[in-house]
Amino acid sequence: MESQLRTKDLITIGSFSAIYLITYVVLSGVLFTPVLYMFMLPIGALLMGPVYMLYIARTQKVGAITIMGFINAL
User: Fold this and answer.
1) What CA–CA distance (Å, rounded) separates 40 from 38?
2) 16-72: per-residue pLDDT in tens?
3) pTM score, whole prediction
4) Would you state the torsion angle of the CA atoms of residues 13, 65, 68, 9, taken in this order, to the nearest 10 degrees?
5) What is d(CA 27, CA 46) in angstroms, rounded to the nearest whole number?
6) Are 71 and 14 in contact (CB under 8 A)?
7) CA of residue 63 relative to chain centroid, distance
C-alpha cells in the first residue's frame, strides 16, 4: 500500500468533506430550536458517523483524516 496522497485521494477528501459539512449544516438548521439542540450530538453521530466511516475505508493513507479535519475546521 502506498503512503503518499495522490490526486484521486485529494478529490475523495474534498468530496467527503463536502458531504460531511453539508450534513452538519442541514442538521444544524433543522435542530436550531433550543429544545432540539441538545439532541444534535446523538443525531449527528448517527447521520455523520457512516459518512466518516466510509471515508476512512475509502482513503487508507497517512494524513487523510488530518486534511479532512483542517478543511472542516476552516
Assistant:
1) 5
2) 999 999 999 999 898 888 888 888 889 999 999 999 999 999 998 888 999 999 998
3) 0.83
4) -20
5) 11
6) yes
7) 15
Burial of 59 (0-12, 13-18, 19+ CB in 10 A): buried
Cell digits of residue 53: 466511516
Only one residue has cell 475546521, namely 73
Q: Which three cell numbers stand for residue 65?
A: 483524516
Q: Phi and psi (nearest 5°) for 5? A: -85, 130
Q: Are 49 and 27 in contact (CB under 8 A)?
A: no
| Type of residue found at 28 | S
Query: Within 13 Å, how many C-alpha atoms sit on residue 70's CB side?
Result: 6
What is the number of residues in the chain?
Answer: 74
- What does DSSP assign to residue 4? S
Which contiguous run of DSSP H or E holds residue 11? Answer: helix 7-30
